[in-house]
Task: inverse folding
C-alpha cells in the first residue's frame, strides 16, 4: 500500500497544531493533521483551556458573582448553581469550538486523520484509528502532541472523588469541601472557581510560595481574596498519603507535618506530562526527555531537521496563546516564509477569580538587575466602571524607569485583566513611556482607565 | 463682608470641573468648587453617564442577556427585570461615586460650595444655596457648568409618560412600548437598553442616517441587531405633534409623513443645551451663544484671559473622557505647568447594546482623502471567548495603509469594545503597523484576540 504523501504532517490539532497546519496551507502546501478520535482541538478544547474558562464565565454569569457587591454576599443569582447548568454550557461551547476548528481545517483543504500516531521512520507516520491503519508520508513533520496530567501512582484516582484536572469538568457533583493538591496556575484556577460557587477549598502545595513568577503584591492580593472566599492554604506541606474513607464517603490527604485534611473530593493538579513518549520517536531518530518533552532550537526544529515541534510538548511557557504563535512560526520557518521572531513580550494570563495578567518586568527582576524603577498603582474601587461591574478587588500596577519614564511592566488583578493587559503590552512593544497614559484619553467608564490613574499616581511620586 | 479668596474657582463638579480642580490643587493652589446641592459629580454622575451605564451593566447582569445565546432567546435570567432591581443598583452606584468624588476633593483640600453660581464681576462669583449667599473671589475661574436636555416647548413633558433623558432613570415603570425621539448617541443607547429588556421601541429621527461619524458597516450591524431585538426605525421623519391619549393612558407622536406612532412612554432625546446662559456671564464680560455654549481657544481660555472653560459647555466632543482631559489641561495652562497637547486620537465609546468603540480614521474619511487603505475583519463568532460570553454579534475591523501597512483606524462592535479599543489606540499613537498584531501573542481566550485575527485577514488581502 502506498502512503498518502503530504508536504507537512501535523501530529496534534491543539493550538500549535492548528495554527501550524493553517499557516502551511496558506503557503499552498499539502497538509494533514492527525488527532485522536473526538479530540479535534486537542486538550485545549476538550479538557483544558476551553472547558475551564467556560466554567469560569458560566460561574460569573449564572451565580451573579459580579453583582454580589451590591446585593450582599448571600446573593446567588438564580439560586444555587447546578452541575447541569455548568455542563450544559461547557458542552455547548466545546462542540461549537470543535466545529469552528474542523471548518477552518476543511476550508484550508487540510486532511484530517483520526487516531493515534506513531513514527515508522523519519518521514512515515502510521495512524491507528479504531482498527483502521493508515500510513502517511510527510516531507516535513510538526509534532504538537501536547501533554496529559502527571499522575502519581500513589494516588488512588477513581474518576469520581479523586480526579485529575482533565477529569474535573466531567465531575457530576459540586463538592461542599474540596482538597486541591498543587497550587500552580491550574490548581489555583480550579480552586478559585470552586471557592466562588461556595465550596470550602483546601489548597496544598509543597512549595512555600505560590506563583513565584508573578508580582508579589498581586499574588498577596489574590491569596487574600481566595481566603475571603473560604480557601485555606497549606503551603510548604507535602502530601504523604491520599485515600478514601468509604464508610463516610470522604476523601482524605495526610501531610508530612502530621495534619490530615478531609473533603468530598480531591483534585490532583500537580503538573503535566508531555506526550512525546507516545510517538515511537526512536523510529524517527529522536528522543523525548523524562517528562516526555522534545527539545527544539529557536526555529522550533528538532535534532532531525525536517521534524519540528511546538506547543506544550516543548515546555515553557505552555500557554495556548504562545503555542499558537509557535505553530505558526514553525511552519513559516519550515517553508522559508518571512516571519518575525516570536516576541519575548508575551502576556501571561491566569484565569483565577479574580483574574491576573502581566506583561514585561516584575519588581523582583528589576531589583535584581538594579534598574531604578518607580511604581504607579490604581485600585479598581476608585473606578466608576468597577463599581458597575461589582469588582472591588482589582488593581493595576505599572512599573517604569525613574529616569527615562519608559514603561517596564504592567501587572493587573481583577475583571478583564487578561483583555486590558494588551494596552500595556502595545506601549511596551513600541518603547513607550508612562506619560503616554497621562496624555491619552480613555473611554469613560472603562477599566482601562486604571492605566491613566496609575500613571498619574506614578508621576506624582517623581 | 469680605469674599473668600482662591487661586481658582471652578463652576461645576462634573468630569471637567473635578479634574481641573484636582490638577490645580496638586500644583498647590487654593481651589474652590461650586455645584448645586446634591449635584457633586454633575450630570455625569446624577442623570447622565453613570446612571445610564449602570443601567446598562445591570441589564446585562440581571437579565442574563449575555447567556441567551446558549439558552435561547426566551431566557431571561432571574425572570423579568424589575424597575426596583435597576433603581436599587443605580442609586447605590450614584451614591458611591458621589462619595468617591467628594473624598477626592476633600483629600486635596478643595473647598466645596453648594448652590447655584453667577458672576458679580470678572473675579467675583456669588453662590446661592438654600437662601445662604456666599461671595468668592478667584484669581482664575474655570467654567465647567455642563449641559441640560434641550426641551422643546411643543412637547408636553409630564415627567411620567413624556420624559427627557435626565428624567428617564427615575421612571417608575418599564414601558412595554416606547417611542424614542432622537437617534443620536443618547437616544440610541436608551433605545437599545429598553429593547434588551424586551420593550418594543420605535426610534424616530429627522436625519435619514444615524451616527454619521461612525463606520457604516458597524452602524449597519448595530441597526440590524436593534431590529432583531424588536426596534423599529423611523428615520428621515419629522415629529409634528406629541400628545397623551388620557383615556387609553397612551402617548402618541404624529409624523409629518402622516404616520402616527403610539406607546406607553415617550423619551425625548434631541440634543442638549449648554448651561452657559445661567451664569450671568455679562457681568464677567463674556457671552454664551444661542445654545448656551462658551467659546475657548486651544488653551481652553475664554475671551477674558483669566477665565477658562472646559467640558460639555464648550461643545464637541462632549464626552466625559475628553472633558476630564480638558479640565486637567485648562488648569495646567492656567498655572503654567508643563502639559502635552490634548491628543487628537481620542476613542469614541457608544454604550449601546451591543456597544461600539472607534479610534482613528473611518473608511469614509480615507476614501475622501484618497488614502489607499485595506481592511482586516474579525467576527466575534469565531473567537472562543465570545462563545463563552455569548456574544455572537461582535466584529472588529481595522483599516491600514496598503503600502506602509501603518494602522489607520479601528472600529469595534460588541462586548468590551470600549475597553479593547485602547489597544488599537496605543498602536496608532505610536505609529505602529498592522504587522504588530500579527507578530504579537494575545492572551487566550480573550476578545482582544480579534486584533490578531483581523490583522491576518487584512494581510492575506495584500
Result:
Amino acid at each position: 500500500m502506498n502512503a498518502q504523501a503530504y508536504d507537512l504532517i501535523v501530529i496534534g490539532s491543539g493550538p500549535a497544531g492548528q495554527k501550524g497546519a493553517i499557516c502551511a496551507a496558506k503557503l499552498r502546501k499539502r497538509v494533514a493533521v492527525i488527532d485522536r478520535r473526538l479530540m479535534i482541538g486537542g486538550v485545549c478544547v476538550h479538557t483544558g483551556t476551553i472547558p475551564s474558562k467556560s466554567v469560569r464565565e458560566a460561574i460569573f454569569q449564572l451565580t451573579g458573582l459580579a453583582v454580589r457587591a451590591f446585593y450582599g454576599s448571600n446573593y446567588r443569582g438564580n439560586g444555587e448553581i447546578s452541575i447541569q447548568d455548568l455542563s450544559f454550557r461547557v458542552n455547548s461551547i466545546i462542540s461549537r469550538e470543535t466545529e469552528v476548528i474542523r471548518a477552518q481545517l476543511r476550508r484550508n483543504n487540510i486532511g484530517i486523520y483520526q487516531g493515534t500516531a506513531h513514527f515508522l521512520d523519519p518521514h512515515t507516520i502510521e495512524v491507528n484509528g479504531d482498527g483502521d491503519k493508515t500510513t502517511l508520508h510527510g516531507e516535513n513533520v510538526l509534532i504538537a502532541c501536547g501533554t496529559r496530567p502527571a499522575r502519581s501512582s500513589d494516588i488512588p484516582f477513581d474518576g469520581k472523588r479523586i480526579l485529575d484536572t482533565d477529569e474535573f469538568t466531567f465531575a457530576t457533583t459540586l463538592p461542599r469541601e474540596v482538597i486541591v493538591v498543587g497550587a500552580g496556575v491550574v490548581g489555583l484556577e480550579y480552586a478559585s472557581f470552586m471557592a466562588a460557587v461556595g465550596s470550602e477549598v483546601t489548597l496544598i502545595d509543597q512549595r512555600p510560595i505560590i506563583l513565584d513568577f508573578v508580582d508579589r503584591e498581586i499574588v498577596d492580593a489574590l491569596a487574600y481574596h481566595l481566603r475571603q472566599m473560604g480557601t485555606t492554604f497549606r503551603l510548604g506541606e507535602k502530601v504523604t498519603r491520599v485515600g478514601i474513607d468509604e464508610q463516610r464517603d470522604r476523601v482524605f490527604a495526610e501531610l508530612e507535618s502530621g495534619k490530615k485534611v478531609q473533603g468530598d473530593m480531591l483534585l490532583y493538579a500537580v503538573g503535566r506530562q508531555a506526550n512525546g513518549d507516545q510517538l515511537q520517536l526512536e523510529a524517527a531518530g529522536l528522543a523525548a526527555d523524562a517528562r516526555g518533552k522534545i527539545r527544539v532550537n529557536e526555529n522550533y526544529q528538532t535534532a532531525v531537521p525536517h521534524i519540528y515541534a511546538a506547543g506544550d510538548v516543548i515546555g515553557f511557557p505552555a500557554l495556548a496563546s504562545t503555542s499558537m504563535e509557535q505553530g505558526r512560526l514553525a511552519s513559516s520557518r519550515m517553508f522559508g516564509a518571512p516571519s518575525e521572531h516570536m516576541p519575548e513580550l508575551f502576556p501571561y494570563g491566569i484565569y483565577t477569580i479574580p483574574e491576573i495578567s502581566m506583561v514585561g518586568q516584575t519588581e523582583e527582576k528589576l531589583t535584581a538587575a538594579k534598574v531604578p524603577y518607580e511604581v504607579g498603582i490604581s485600585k479598581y474601587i476608585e473606578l466608576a466602571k468597577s463599581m458597575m461591574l461589582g469588582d472591588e478587588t482589582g488593581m493595576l500596577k505599572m512599573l517604569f524607569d525613574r529616569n527615562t519614564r519608559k514603561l517596564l511592566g504592567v501587572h493587573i488583578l481583577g475583571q478583564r485583566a487578561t483583555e486590558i493587559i494588551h494596552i500595556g503590552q502595545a506601549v511596551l512593544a513600541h518603547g513607550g513611556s508612562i506619560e503616554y497614559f497621562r496624555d491619552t484619553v480613555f473611554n469613560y467608564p472603562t477599566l482601562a482607565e486604571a492605566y491613566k490613574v496609575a500613571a498619574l499616581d506614578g508621576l506624582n511620586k517623581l
